[in-house]
Amino acid sequence: MERSYSQLRASPEITRRITPEELAELHLEQGYVERALHIYEELVEREPANATYAMRRAWLARMIPPSRPEVRRTASVVERRAIVRVR
């Protein structure tokens, strides 16, 4: 059975929600280091025992230029929704 694009896009059996980690990595791949860092900061706050999140956050923090010690919180509504789903 051939499906049109609109049918594929709306089909629940082939879609899934993106995880906050995946969203952070997508931001990083696109060059949005600050957005990725913000997501990992939120994840570390929610799961302080998760060493993977802490290491990734530290690595991303080192990527911010020294001239910008205070990283602005620039998360979009989509990012915030993704972070809330972790709870």
Structure description:
The chain has helices at 5-10, 20-29, 33-46, 51-63, 77-84. With 87 residues, the chain is an all-alpha fold. It has one domain (19-84). α2 (20-29) runs antiparallel to α3 and α3 runs antiparallel to α4. The longest helix is centred in the middle third of the chain and has 14 residues, at 33-46. It is elongated. The termini are far apart.
Low-confidence stretches: 72-87
Number of E-state strands = 0
Note the run of SSEs as H and E.
Answer: HHHHH
Count of helical regions: 5
Question: Overall 3D geometry?
Answer: elongated
Strand content: under 5%
Q: Helical content, roughly?
A: 55-70%
- Main beta-sheet strand count, sense and barrel state: none
Question: What is shown here, in short?
Answer:
By secondary structure, the protein is mostly helical. The protein has helices at 5-10, 20-29, 33-46, 51-63, 77-84.
Characteristics of this structure?
87 residues; mainly alpha; 5 helices; 59% helix; elongated
Secondary structure layout plus pairing:
Blueprint: H1 5-10, H2 20-29, H3 33-46, H4 51-63, H5 77-84
Helix pairs in contact: 2-3, 3-4
